[in-house]
Amino acid sequence: MNFVEELRWRGMIQDMTPGTEEQLQKEMTAAYLGIDPTADSLHIGHLVGVMMLRHFQRSGHKPIALIGGATGMIGDPSGKSQERVLIDEPKLRHNQECIKKQLEKFLDFNSNEPNAAELVNNYDWMKDFTFLDFIRNVGKLITVNYMMSKDSVKRRFTGENGADGMSFTEFSYQLLQGYDFVHLNSHKNCKLQLGGADQWGNITTGTEMIRKVTGNEAFALTCPLITKADGKKFGKTESGNVWLDRRYTSPYKFYQFWLNVSDDDAAKYIKIFTSLPKDEIDALIKEQTEAPHLRPLQKRLAQELTVMVHSQEDYEAAVEASNILFGNATSEALRKLDEETLLSVFDGVPQFDINKDELSAGVKAIDLLAEKAKVFASKGEMRKLVQGGGVSINKAKLTDAETLIDNSYLLNEKYILVQKGKKNYFLLTAK
Predict the structure, then answer these.
(1) Is residue 28 within 8 Å of residue 62, measured between CB atoms?
(2) Which helix (H) or strand (E) holds 351?
(3) pTM for the whole thing?
(4) Tens digits of per-residue pLDDT, 155-201?
(5) Residue positions annotated with a catalytic role
């Protein structure tokens, strides 16, 4: 597989230094990509870079994932208008371990092949640098004029987009990232740095420093910053980032994010975020054009990503959970849902607390739903809807408003799902 050609048809190349393609055709090459360790999980914004490393390894080359322990303590000014919050070493180490577990789903770190992936942390070689050593040995390699010419620096100095200037700490970031490339070039024979388009300035600073220190050739390749079809930032939802860790974004919500992207975005994202070959993607795009209401692109995109990031079981559970909300799923299917998925599916629906002790003896449905939990404004309204077949409890039609509801109705020993009409759901929590 030719790495550059692969990225080209997937729309994943923004800039590339001359000679990059020739270098990759000449020999197995090591390339690195930096990952910010300020959280203990990656989010889908990181996936573009991770997929670049994945394609790189599949092309027979050696990927190096660099956890920015030192640079994470400083904060990259690229695309930021304010200084970052700095984190301490124990937190960094914890975050690194969590991120490595996630990367192992995309990259092969355990192979005996020469192109096995590696994980490094720049804190390991930066922590012993004294300030004087750094200023003498690294600071002298690049002029202030060169550093000031970078867009990320210029924007902060001119106060563009409400930027509030730049501290010396952040100004030095470019030197730190540049030195990472120098170090990996010397110690790991790393000749290429990958990154997002906003990293071009930092990456080319590194190639310039390598040229000055060793005279070696070094290369850079960046991917476009991913946006949605409407121009908005990719990967953000109303509730914030879409995370790879299920503690922050459940597999169901993760699956739903990809399932709900627009047709235009699905055609773009399936190239960027999956390893599916071109002919298969072209066939899916054709299928989508002929029957857009079936949404084959979104369904396949959601499947590929959910299986890769979580598991086949989590994907199947997410599909089943979707059917419960949007299809004609049975009471039995609802009872199979674990608590995490149940709460994800019905996140945002009106919720009521009910007394668990009262349920032990049994409560008439009409008393429960019109008095103890105000699902209905009146008992008359409820009787009328029950007679019309418009009320379900745990996905089973309620045929008699006097039915006794007891603890046997509890899902996960805690919840009762009430459906009023076709689309109105309510979640009762027994406490």
Answers:
(1) yes
(2) strand 351-354
(3) 0.83
(4) 777 666 555 677 787 788 888 889 999 999 999 999 999 999 988 98
(5) 38, 43, 46, 80, 84, 177, 198, 233, 236-237
